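Practice problem: predict the structure.
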Amino acid sequence: MAYAFQWLRSIVFAGQAYAMMAIMAVFFTPWAIIDRRGAFAGVHTWCRYVRWTASWMIGLRSEVRGEIPTGEVMIAAKHQSFFDIIILVSELPRPKFIMKKELIWTPILGWYAKRIGCVPVDRGRRGAAIKAMLARVASGQQEPGQLIIYPQGTRVAPGAERDYKVGTGVLYQEMGVPCVPVACNVGLFWPRRRIYRAPGLAVVEFLPVIPPGLPLRDFMNKLKGDVEAQSDVLMAEAGFDVSKH
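Answer:
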Protein backbone atom coordinates (compact mmCIF):
# COMPACT_ATOMS: atom_id res chain seq x y z
CA MET A 1 0.00 0.00 0.00
CA ALA A 2 2.80 2.44 0.89
CA TYR A 3 4.54 1.69 -2.40
CA ALA A 4 1.36 2.30 -4.39
CA PHE A 5 0.79 5.58 -2.54
CA GLN A 6 4.34 6.70 -3.33
CA TRP A 7 3.68 5.91 -6.99
CA LEU A 8 0.58 8.11 -6.90
CA ARG A 9 2.48 10.93 -5.20
CA SER A 10 5.23 10.61 -7.83
CA ILE A 11 2.75 10.97 -10.69
CA VAL A 12 1.12 14.04 -9.15
CA PHE A 13 4.52 15.57 -8.41
CA ALA A 14 5.77 15.07 -11.97
CA GLY A 15 2.60 16.49 -13.50
CA GLN A 16 2.59 19.66 -11.45
CA ALA A 17 6.36 20.20 -11.95
CA TYR A 18 6.07 20.21 -15.73
CA ALA A 19 2.92 22.32 -15.65
CA MET A 20 4.76 24.87 -13.51
CA MET A 21 7.64 24.84 -16.00
CA ALA A 22 5.29 26.10 -18.71
CA ILE A 23 3.69 28.68 -16.44
CA MET A 24 7.03 30.07 -15.23
CA ALA A 25 8.45 30.14 -18.75
CA VAL A 26 5.60 32.38 -19.87
CA PHE A 27 5.77 34.53 -16.74
CA PHE A 28 9.52 35.23 -16.99
CA THR A 29 9.66 35.67 -20.78
CA PRO A 30 9.10 39.48 -20.89
CA TRP A 31 11.92 40.07 -18.42
CA ALA A 32 14.14 37.49 -20.15
CA ILE A 33 13.67 39.25 -23.51
CA ILE A 34 14.87 42.53 -22.06
CA ASP A 35 17.65 41.18 -19.84
CA ARG A 36 19.41 37.80 -19.60
CA ARG A 37 19.04 38.03 -15.84
CA GLY A 38 15.34 37.36 -16.37
CA ALA A 39 16.17 34.06 -18.07
CA PHE A 40 18.44 33.03 -15.20
CA ALA A 41 15.75 34.06 -12.71
CA GLY A 42 13.22 31.86 -14.47
CA VAL A 43 15.53 28.86 -14.63
CA HIS A 44 16.64 29.23 -11.01
CA THR A 45 13.11 29.72 -9.75
CA TRP A 46 11.75 26.61 -11.44
CA CYS A 47 14.65 24.39 -10.28
CA ARG A 48 14.30 25.61 -6.71
CA TYR A 49 10.54 25.12 -6.90
CA VAL A 50 11.03 21.50 -7.98
CA ARG A 51 13.42 20.85 -5.10
CA TRP A 52 10.97 22.42 -2.66
CA THR A 53 7.92 20.52 -3.89
CA ALA A 54 9.91 17.26 -4.00
CA SER A 55 10.71 17.65 -0.30
CA TRP A 56 7.10 17.71 0.87
CA MET A 57 5.16 16.05 -1.95
CA ILE A 58 7.27 12.89 -2.28
CA GLY A 59 9.62 13.09 0.70
CA LEU A 60 12.71 13.63 -1.46
CA ARG A 61 14.95 16.18 0.23
CA SER A 62 18.06 17.51 -1.49
CA GLU A 63 21.36 18.86 -0.24
CA VAL A 64 24.38 20.50 -1.83
CA ARG A 65 27.82 20.04 -0.29
CA GLY A 66 31.16 21.65 -1.04
CA GLU A 67 32.08 25.09 -2.32
CA ILE A 68 29.83 26.31 -5.11
CA PRO A 69 31.93 27.82 -7.96
CA THR A 70 31.01 31.29 -9.23
CA GLY A 71 33.60 32.11 -11.90
CA GLU A 72 34.40 30.77 -15.36
CA VAL A 73 34.94 27.07 -14.72
CA MET A 74 34.19 23.71 -16.24
CA ILE A 75 32.03 21.44 -14.10
CA ALA A 76 32.42 17.72 -14.79
CA ALA A 77 29.52 16.04 -13.05
CA LYS A 78 28.29 12.56 -12.29
CA HIS A 79 24.95 12.23 -14.07
CA GLN A 80 22.39 9.75 -12.74
CA SER A 81 19.06 11.45 -13.42
CA PHE A 82 17.31 14.69 -14.34
CA PHE A 83 17.25 15.67 -10.67
CA ASP A 84 21.03 16.15 -10.46
CA ILE A 85 20.71 18.68 -13.30
CA ILE A 86 17.95 20.47 -11.40
CA ILE A 87 20.02 20.62 -8.21
CA LEU A 88 23.12 21.92 -9.99
CA VAL A 89 21.25 24.59 -11.93
CA SER A 90 19.40 25.72 -8.81
CA GLU A 91 22.70 26.58 -7.09
CA LEU A 92 25.08 27.77 -9.82
CA PRO A 93 24.84 31.50 -10.56
CA ARG A 94 25.46 31.23 -14.33
CA PRO A 95 24.99 27.59 -15.44
CA LYS A 96 25.33 26.69 -19.11
CA PHE A 97 25.66 23.54 -21.20
CA ILE A 98 27.05 22.39 -24.52
CA MET A 99 24.02 21.46 -26.60
CA LYS A 100 23.24 20.21 -30.08
CA LYS A 101 22.53 23.12 -32.38
CA GLU A 102 19.17 21.62 -33.37
CA LEU A 103 17.88 21.96 -29.79
CA ILE A 104 17.92 25.74 -30.12
CA TRP A 105 14.68 25.38 -32.10
CA THR A 106 12.92 23.45 -29.32
CA PRO A 107 9.93 25.54 -28.10
CA ILE A 108 10.61 27.44 -24.84
CA LEU A 109 13.51 25.20 -23.77
CA GLY A 110 15.72 26.14 -26.71
CA TRP A 111 15.09 29.84 -26.34
CA TYR A 112 15.82 29.85 -22.61
CA ALA A 113 18.95 27.76 -23.17
CA LYS A 114 20.25 30.31 -25.64
CA ARG A 115 19.44 33.21 -23.30
CA ILE A 116 21.39 31.73 -20.37
CA GLY A 117 24.46 31.19 -22.56
CA CYS A 118 24.34 27.52 -23.52
CA VAL A 119 26.78 26.72 -26.31
CA PRO A 120 25.09 25.37 -29.46
CA VAL A 121 27.48 23.33 -31.57
CA ASP A 122 27.56 21.60 -34.92
CA ARG A 123 28.99 18.11 -34.93
CA GLY A 124 32.78 18.36 -35.10
CA ARG A 125 32.92 22.13 -34.41
CA ARG A 126 32.84 22.14 -30.61
CA GLY A 127 36.35 23.58 -30.32
CA ALA A 128 35.45 26.68 -32.37
CA ALA A 129 32.28 27.22 -30.33
CA ILE A 130 34.17 26.99 -27.03
CA LYS A 131 36.85 29.45 -28.22
CA ALA A 132 34.16 31.92 -29.29
CA MET A 133 32.48 31.63 -25.89
CA LEU A 134 35.75 32.24 -24.02
CA ALA A 135 36.51 35.23 -26.25
CA ARG A 136 33.15 36.79 -25.34
CA VAL A 137 33.87 36.33 -21.63
CA ALA A 138 37.38 37.78 -21.97
CA SER A 139 36.09 40.84 -23.85
CA GLY A 140 33.39 41.53 -21.25
CA GLN A 141 30.56 40.77 -23.67
CA GLN A 142 29.43 37.84 -21.54
CA GLU A 143 29.59 37.21 -17.80
CA PRO A 144 31.71 34.31 -16.56
CA GLY A 145 29.69 31.13 -16.24
CA GLN A 146 29.86 27.52 -15.19
CA LEU A 147 29.94 25.13 -18.15
CA ILE A 148 28.40 21.81 -17.07
CA ILE A 149 29.44 18.65 -18.88
CA TYR A 150 28.88 14.95 -18.19
CA PRO A 151 32.10 12.94 -18.67
CA GLN A 152 30.25 9.65 -19.15
CA GLY A 153 28.07 11.20 -21.81
CA THR A 154 24.70 10.09 -20.45
CA ARG A 155 22.80 9.16 -17.32
CA VAL A 156 24.36 6.18 -15.55
CA ALA A 157 22.39 4.14 -13.02
CA PRO A 158 23.86 3.73 -9.52
CA GLY A 159 26.33 0.87 -9.47
CA ALA A 160 26.61 0.68 -13.27
CA GLU A 161 29.93 1.26 -15.02
CA ARG A 162 30.53 3.43 -18.05
CA ASP A 163 33.76 4.83 -19.43
CA TYR A 164 34.72 8.49 -19.05
CA LYS A 165 34.96 10.01 -22.52
CA VAL A 166 38.30 11.53 -23.46
CA GLY A 167 36.46 14.49 -24.99
CA THR A 168 36.08 15.82 -21.46
CA GLY A 169 39.85 16.03 -21.15
CA VAL A 170 40.19 17.64 -24.56
CA LEU A 171 37.64 20.27 -23.55
CA TYR A 172 39.52 20.86 -20.28
CA GLN A 173 42.66 21.56 -22.29
CA GLU A 174 40.86 23.77 -24.84
CA MET A 175 39.28 25.93 -22.16
CA GLY A 176 42.32 26.30 -19.92
CA VAL A 177 40.13 26.95 -16.86
CA PRO A 178 39.76 25.09 -13.55
CA CYS A 179 37.59 21.97 -13.50
CA VAL A 180 35.24 21.27 -10.60
CA PRO A 181 34.32 17.56 -10.28
CA VAL A 182 30.86 16.78 -8.92
CA ALA A 183 29.69 13.57 -7.23
CA CYS A 184 26.11 12.55 -6.43
CA ASN A 185 23.77 9.80 -5.23
CA VAL A 186 20.62 11.19 -6.89
CA GLY A 187 19.85 8.15 -9.03
CA LEU A 188 18.97 6.13 -5.93
CA PHE A 189 15.82 8.20 -5.52
CA TRP A 190 15.03 9.65 -8.96
CA PRO A 191 15.62 6.88 -11.56
CA ARG A 192 16.65 7.52 -15.13
CA ARG A 193 13.46 6.45 -16.89
CA ARG A 194 10.77 5.72 -14.28
CA ILE A 195 8.17 8.10 -12.91
CA TYR A 196 8.50 6.60 -9.42
CA ARG A 197 10.44 8.81 -7.00
CA ALA A 198 11.66 7.38 -3.69
CA PRO A 199 11.87 9.39 -0.46
CA GLY A 200 15.28 10.11 1.01
CA LEU A 201 18.17 12.59 0.87
CA ALA A 202 19.61 13.30 -2.58
CA VAL A 203 23.10 14.81 -2.37
CA VAL A 204 25.19 16.64 -4.95
CA GLU A 205 28.73 17.44 -3.83
CA PHE A 206 31.24 19.85 -5.38
CA LEU A 207 34.70 18.33 -4.98
CA PRO A 208 38.12 20.06 -4.77
CA VAL A 209 39.07 21.97 -7.90
CA ILE A 210 41.37 20.41 -10.50
CA PRO A 211 43.62 23.27 -11.69
CA PRO A 212 44.22 23.84 -15.40
CA GLY A 213 47.31 22.53 -17.11
CA LEU A 214 47.41 18.83 -16.21
CA PRO A 215 48.39 16.35 -18.94
CA LEU A 216 45.37 14.68 -20.52
CA ARG A 217 45.85 11.23 -18.99
CA ASP A 218 46.56 12.61 -15.51
CA PHE A 219 43.45 14.77 -15.69
CA MET A 220 41.20 11.92 -16.80
CA ASN A 221 42.51 9.58 -14.10
CA LYS A 222 42.06 12.16 -11.36
CA LEU A 223 38.61 13.18 -12.54
CA LYS A 224 37.31 9.63 -12.67
CA GLY A 225 38.94 8.66 -9.41
CA ASP A 226 37.59 11.63 -7.48
CA VAL A 227 34.05 11.50 -8.86
CA GLU A 228 33.55 7.74 -8.62
CA ALA A 229 35.06 7.42 -5.14
CA GLN A 230 32.96 10.19 -3.64
CA SER A 231 29.80 9.08 -5.45
CA ASP A 232 30.28 5.65 -3.87
CA VAL A 233 30.61 7.33 -0.45
CA LEU A 234 27.39 9.29 -0.96
CA MET A 235 25.50 6.23 -2.15
CA ALA A 236 26.77 4.18 0.80
CA GLU A 237 25.56 6.92 3.16
CA ALA A 238 22.10 6.47 1.63
CA GLY A 239 22.18 2.70 2.26
CA PHE A 240 23.28 1.49 -1.19
CA ASP A 241 25.70 -1.46 -1.02
CA VAL A 242 28.35 -0.47 -3.56
CA SER A 243 30.27 -3.72 -2.96
CA LYS A 244 27.53 -5.70 -4.70
CA HIS A 245 27.76 -3.71 -7.90
